[in-house]
Structure prediction request, 260 residues.
Amino acid sequence: MPEILRISRLTKRFGGLAAVNDVSFSVPEGAIVGLIGPNGAGKTTIFNLVTGVYSLTDGQVEFGGLNIAGLPAYKIADLGITRTFQNIRLFKNLTVFENVLTACHRSASYSILESILRLPRFRQEEKNITRKAEELLSIMGLSDRRDLVANNLPYGMQRRLEIVRALALDPKLLLLDEPAAGMNPDETEQLMRMISKIRDDFKLSILVIEHHMDLIMGVCERIVVLNFGVKLAEGNPEQISNDPKVIEAYLGVAEGEANA
Ligand SMILES: Nc1ncnc2c1ncn2[C@@H]1O[C@H](COP(=O)(O)OP(=O)(O)OP(=O)(O)O)[C@@H](O)[C@H]1O
Ligand SMILES: [Mg+2]
Prediction:
């Protein structure tokens, strides 16, 4: 299986702290890979390095064979890596549907002039965008909430709306930062099925950070474990759940951290 993302010897220092230290792993095309580890292990920092939010101290990030280290964040998003955030970022005062439309418009191809004059290409594309937004909301089970103001959505649905917005940008690789945070077991189970469906329907690759072990073990083909910025282990769910190092550093406390 070719790799869509390859991270090699990635290092990020903040002053004296190596938040990510010499970490290497890759995401095979079409795979769902989990990134786990205790609080402060460096998981979100890896997302920030891959998406160009932080500059890296050392190492390499290749996406589809292209070296993307040092590219600005918008370029990396255009190339096909989009993400959700650990702290939900939505337009809280816009409706669910408007939140999706604003994301869809970033990939629209008409010019400002065409939109002002409402030329055919603009009208056709608006139709396509509306259809796409509706389809994405339906997959994530949000169709009947489309006219609610985002702020009035239950927390778990706000997290799902964030995923819809990330999908609206047509990613090839989707990065999910704790998508099940704050969800109860039923919601987590539903989300798990949605993540698998997204991968299958959109032929995406997914890298997911999560503390809910049932989600990680149920949905990921591979798992990378970080601890204090260093890669502690990598393997399939069975290998990871039986690895004494991982149990000692993380799995023994993981359920408590899910609520942290
Ligand atoms: N902008 C920053 N400036 C300084 N230190 C930072 C910065 N961002 C992250 N860190 C530090 O880097 C380390 C890794 O943080 P990171 O947010 O990547 O952890 P995490 O694995 O995502 O943890 P959590 O599970 O709590 O979200 C922490 O010690 C954190 O305090
Ligand atoms: Mg984090």
